[in-house]
Design a protein that fits this description.
Strand order of the largest sheet: 3-2-1-4-5
Distance between the termini: 28 Å
Number of strands: 10
Number of domains: 2
Radius of gyration: 22 Å
Order of helices and strands: EEHEHHHHEHEHEEEHHHHEHEH
Strand content: 15-25%
CATH topology of the largest domain: Nucleotidyltransferase, domain 5
Largest sheet: 5 strands, mixed
CATH architecture of the largest domain: 2-Layer Sandwich
Shape: globular
Length: 399
Amino acid sequence: MYILGIETSCDETALSIVITDDTVAKSDSPNFRVLSNLVISQINVHAPYGGVFPALAKREHTKNLVPLLETALKESDLYIEGIKELDQTVKNSIAEILEREPELATALIDLFSRAKIPAIDVILVTNGPGLEPALWVGVNFARALSILTHANIVPVNHMEGHVTSILVKDDYLNQNEALYPANEFIFPMISLLVSGGHTQLVLVRDWGDYEIIGETIDDAVGEAFDKVARMLGMEYPGGPKVSKAAMKGQANDEVSLPRPMIHSGDLRFSFSGLKTAVRYLIEDLKARHGEDLDNQLIADIALEFEQSVTEVLVAKTTAAIDTYGAQGLIVAGGVSANRRIAAAMQTLADERGIPLYLPEKTLCGDNSLMITVAGFMNWSANNKTTPEEEVVAVGNLRF
């Protein structure tokens, strides 16, 4: 059977198509083969605004989804040319579902007026958390495709996608079984989810059984990276640029930042105050050194900021591991690609004698393959789908 995954929670438009045998999907360790995994980034669209602009994200998803679907179908050998007039009732249903995205409805109807309806059996779509205007485009696209293909829909929690992203093998496009055996992991595990929109510690009792045990009370760590980057004169997205500058940083008596809530005695995070501390530090240094800080001083600030974040993340994650007797550590989300944070988490895991699981590098950021994995695992476990008309976007969706 063929399974389609859709991700539009923020500023990446992504589609994946996988194939699995029905008996394999229902086994103790379900698996699949990846036929296509595509992502269109909107970084260049949002860069002038210094962050993601929801209305533009919605517009770009609307523009990108059908061309991306056509490419994915071709890569999966599911695109078969054949001019056919769609039933008017089907057209009307698509137009109604995509009432707020009429150009998307037109493009979808056009695609399947010149190609046969593909044999998609299940559609897995992100329904939250994320930017609601962006989420709704993907959700409504999935609903319209369900009308066309008669495929069942499984709504997927975006954050669960990050947790299960560690199941995907390296070089997954060339693997007959793209996932590590799900039944070989030992629970409970702690998952640290670090991205532009979230910083969470999650207790993973089993696949599909999650509890948030700590999270940020204000800014997410990725958001803090981007805001500090802007203060240092770096373009969006700034997180990788801060990390690159930090590699050249040196210890500097003039550059010192707090480690927020590191001794709070709980598993909460706070990065808003750290961001403010960086601003005051920059103002103080400019007063002493002039408005144009040299590259070395900027690198020193980047290093101190990154070290502060890393120490806080390690301290809270250590407490979570010890409190819950974790048998493994998952670090996922866009910020998991940060070398300093990843290295510190590896050291922590080694000290505690447990394995560290990180996503394959291309799957650290938002992507549809992680959504496909999470939805596939849930569907394989309980065979539960959701009626097309009941699938809704929830911007603040929780575990």
